[in-house]
Please model this.
Amino acid sequence: MQIGVPKEIKSAEKRVAATPAGVRALVAHGHKVFVEKDAGLGSGFRNEEYARAGAIILENAQDVWAEAEMIMKVKEPIGPELEWMRPGQVIFTYLHLAANRELTEKLLKKKVVGIAYETVQLEDGSLPLLSPMSEVAGRLSVQMGAYCLEAQNGGMGILLSGISGVRPARVTVIGGGVVGYSAAVIAVGMGAQVSILDNNPLRLRYLEDISDFRMVTIMSNPANIEEECVNSHLVIGSVLIPGARAPKLITRDIVKQMMPGSAIVDVAIDQGGCCETSHPTIHEDPTFIVEDVVHYCVANMPGAVPRTSTIALTNVTLAYGLEIADNGYEKALATDPALRKGLNVLNGQVCYPAVAEAFDLPCVDITF
Model:
């Protein structure tokens, strides 16, 4: 198969879909890999490294898209990429379609095979291609929250850890999945007082056990969410429903009641956000203030640490990319139930229920 790895063009996105080691593995399986010139520079990988791994370096993105039967990316296609797609081409990347009707309609019109990293799902319910980026985003969220609380950034001027004689900050994490747990661990490590909310009692019990009771676990419901948010200096929203829009658990009324200069980091913003006052931002201008509360809503948070993120992403996507390339997408989807759940659109039809529900579109059960 001919595989294309273009340079990401989303603002401040420096990740790349494959490391040179990943390219080497694809080439070793007999595939041609076309890498756009300088695609890996933002993650610290030079063109020469890709060439030594067996990649064919092309000068521009349009040529990569023209040559490739499968495009491997990090973020969803945008701008001119939307016109370079063609029928039957496999787009293997993070799509987050439930939060983007325009992109969904474009993929349907182009009749591509859209396989989303974020909805590939194992039998136990875990999301193997989302988990590493969730870890990165969760850990970053505390760093960014600390940044938001600095006075120069509109925050109340509070140190998460406090110091001797001064109370530490109160941090609330809504959602106890990979993002939420990763955030809570870092916040605890920085010395903050941390509470974490989830609607699964078994998950809360597990989080309490593995944290050695260093974080307070609370059942998630509207009353508890309001109480914790209103009394916290930093709130991290980490709610996820696979492939679907995030529920708006933090209402504007709650935000109005929060302390002036407190902060919200909405990690769920790539799925629409879990706070009513959130809207997507970019790394160059990451924050805004609503109701005297600082909001951080960057939709591609792991792009802030591209080298770590690129290596982590390739670690998990490579096996699935090889599966598609070695067998063709039809056989790969037919034989791997986890990968089959990654299929969002095919031949102009929506194949993932949560995406169809988000836009009131028919959902087609494709069989191979």
